[in-house]
Design goal:
This protein is an alpha+beta fold. The protein has two domains: 129 residues, 2-Layer Sandwich (60s Ribosomal Protein L30, Chain: A), CATH 3.30.1330.10; 166 residues, Phosphoribosyl-aminoimidazole Synthetase, Chain A, domain 2, CATH 3.90.650.10. The longest helix has 18 residues. It starts with a helix and ends with a strand.
Amino acid sequence: MAQTYAEAGVSQDEKAAHIAALVSALTYRRRGLGRPLTKIGHFTGLVDFGAYALSLCTDSVGTKVLVAKEMRRWDTIGIDCVASNVNDMICVGAEPIAFVDYVAIANYDREIARQIGIGLNRGAEMANVSIIGGEIAVVPEVVRELDLAGTCFGAVRKAKVIDGRAIRVGDVIIGVPSTGIHSNGLTLARKVLRDSSQTVFDPLAETNRPWGEELLEPTAIYVRPVLRALRRANVHGMAHITGGGLRNLIRLKANVQFRITEPLPSQGVFTALQSLGAVDDSEMYSTFNMGMGFAIVAPPEEAKDIIRAVRPDFSAKVVGEVVRGQGIQLPERGLSWTTY
């Protein structure tokens, strides 16, 4: 029987409904300096600060921390925490500057804290941000294990904000590879393993690495190559491909269609999960990044410069184009989506 993310306990539709319910109550808006420049729902928020737009976003590692617990290895999830935030922030052209972390724990463990710090420091170095503070909350009645989240601060000149409004028919979509599953869909991945009587120590035939190592592979940090590309080329929109998979592109612009004609190859972890859990294509591409962790939308004449700017870090390529219509289309798999 095919497995779904909803059956694993995470319904994308219910999550969207919960977000809508919360956002509907957020009616107050500051005026003057610090007024919001974006609506809630983009990858990061922006506020007015004179010539600059200041950016704030927050995210967590999610249930990847449970894989870390099974592997008894905590020194990489800090990278994921930083990555989840900074990769969202650069989607509007903002440069991440500073970061604060939040760790909620049920029990004290200094070694786990030390290892988390190692990952956070490495992620900060990769993203060129300073970790300027944070919080460790001891809340045994709230969490049973551990939760790791963070908030990032950054800035961009208002004239340089990239919000997707410039996207037009004829633009190309440039895909930047992921390093694997990143920090999304882990609840479904863990259910697939449980239901198949697999453990994190069993190897994948596709990669000959243990499941735990594949699932803990740190999230790619795209800050340096993307900012380099923005200095060299004209970009119309960018998307961090996280939970929701390809549907994240819909967040950029509603009245065009993003047509993915030559998708990046998926890593072995996705092939193994799909086979092991009999997960259908629609579920895979709307839950996981499927090999593409970041997407850049730009005029076709800018594609070579963007790919060249990204290439020292990632082998990016043109994966599709913007056409008339609405939503996302993946003709190779016969898939389409019209809503995020």
